[in-house]
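One such given next:
>
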Amino acid sequence: MDLLRRSMTGVFVYALLLPVVFWPFDFHLLQPLLSLYFAGAMLLISILRIVHKVFTVRLYDYSATLWFWIFAILSLSHAIVLSTVFAFSIYDARFTPIIHVSMLAVGGVVSGAMIALIPRIKFALFNMVVLLAPSFVAGLIVADKLAFSLMILVFGCYIAAIGIRSHREYIRSFKIEILLDSQKSELEKLNKMDALTHIYNRGYFNTQFEYQWNTGVRHNIRQTLLLVDIDHFKLINDSYGHLAGDTCLRHIAQLINASVKRKNDLVARFGGEEFALLLDASDGHEAMKIAETIRQSIADCSFKHDDKTFKVTVSIGVASVIPTPKMNSNRLIEAADKALYHAKDEGRDQVVLSTDLA
């Protein structure tokens, strides 16, 4: 895509280049058909390249290789037409009036094309050869034009050297940019994740909770929250140490995360030994099924620490509501929290659905 963006300026320049070369020297009056053919060909190719750009996304998604081949053919078509004009200005007497301005134009076009095509240096060098080779050969054939050939050779070598060096700098900058983007993405990910359990942290949960709540208000979408608390977690910490407690937290986080299948549902560490699940567009009945699946999977799956096996259970509070503009989002959290404490009061290892919200 960078290659396409860099080359689009040249597309518009090419459409106007030959009229600018022909008209001031009355070449269009001396050779009207040749002027029409060459200028018309350049304009037509420019239009095709604009069409190619318009359909770039669709075409690139279909086949990146096909996209590039069409780009290359159209780009080289421009180069072939221009190189023909430049060669004729040396070889054909009919083009003599525009020989000097043609040499200026070829220098500008070759330099601009090299800069535009820097992302694909091999293609850029090939494009330069297409532009310069016919003029170089014409200068060798015509006896009194040898100086033009030498000038074209020196100029081509100079532009090629600059292009290769610029390409190396471009690639180096490109790799640095990718590395910085990767590091930025990694830092953003770390800022969202809980370091111990490797699920989302409370800060990210708060942000997403408010976002989904506001979305629910605008589109009348039900919001459902599950609060999960590990039963007797303090006893594990006090009896076996905090490392055992950490292992327990990781174990519970993995089981909860494995129980959530939909990509829009959010699992986060809410604080201490509590976890939160924000379910998108789920009613209370569906949420109770998910909560029961989580409770049962945790009850059935023990974890090990220091060659000891621990069996733990969880209590889960469930709250669900279709938010309204006048409703505070904290009401959903308070309702789920109240249901959680009710589950604990009723003996733990169970799921309770809040009846506080309509």
Notes: The chain has two domains: 2-185, 202-353. The beta strands are 223-230, 266-271, 274-280, 303-305, 308-310, 314-321, 351-353.
